[in-house]
Amino acid sequence: MYRSIIAFGLFSILLYVQHKRPTGLKRNLWTVIGFGLCNFAISYLLLYYGTILTTSALVTLIFSMKVVTTPLFISIVLKQRVSKKIYVGGTLGILSVIVTLIPQLHQLSGDVLLGAALAILGTCITSLGDVFSLYNSDKNIDPVLANTVGMFSAVVLLLVFSIVSGQSFVIPTQPTYWLGLSYLAILASFVAWLFYLKLVKNIGASKSSYMVAGFPAIGGIASVMIGESQLTIYLVLGIIFAVLGAYIALSKERTTAS
């Protein structure tokens, strides 16, 4: 919630500096709110709890399937055609998760399964948010305005969630906490989401999903570095299958000579 409050403040300042009129917001307010709740609040909660119950390496492998789920959701909601290579990429994505889980099959716990399920649900919620984002872009809603309203919606939901779940509101004093929070709020939320929505506006939500192709490798390496996971052939193969699936799913169609 603190992360979202800081990011909301930064987007509000940028929106004020732009001096742009909020055109189209009134007619599309609910899709902007839907984008914010899906991509800034609900998906974050699901992925965070999924990481707590399992490993960040497995969660990033699952999240890389966003390259498949986003085009599928767009095809269902916005009635756009889905290429067959999306299904090929999705199959490789599922295979990457299965391969990564092989070493844990003999001691597969309920927590791991629940964590994986939360990560899958979080990925789907993110893809739904991408659909809202593409729709808002088609309606020419300014990305900074969409981020500001969306982040405010996320702050409200996270505040309600914190109160209902009985969380304690404290101000931590550890420098490492504020260093990590500053990184998440400024770079991982404000800067990253601003660039991502610009990317969606320029090339579309499906092609923008290219960015998640590198997530499995980054998440896997980070998980090994912090001692959360062991570097095994199964993890390496899982990363390879995930990246290959993303590449196939989002590669350009070949044109044949007539």
Automatic annotation (TrEMBL):
Assigned keywords, A-Z: Cell membrane, Membrane, Transmembrane, Transmembrane helix
InterPro entries noted in UniProt: AA-Vitamin_Transporters, EamA_dom, EmrE-like
Membrane topology: Multi-pass membrane protein
GO cellular-component term (any): plasma membrane
The keyword Transmembrane helix belongs to this UniProt entry's keyword annotation: yes
Family membership: Belongs to the EamA transporter family.
Annotated protein name in UniProt: Drug/metabolite transporter permease
Source organism of the structure: Staphylococcus microti
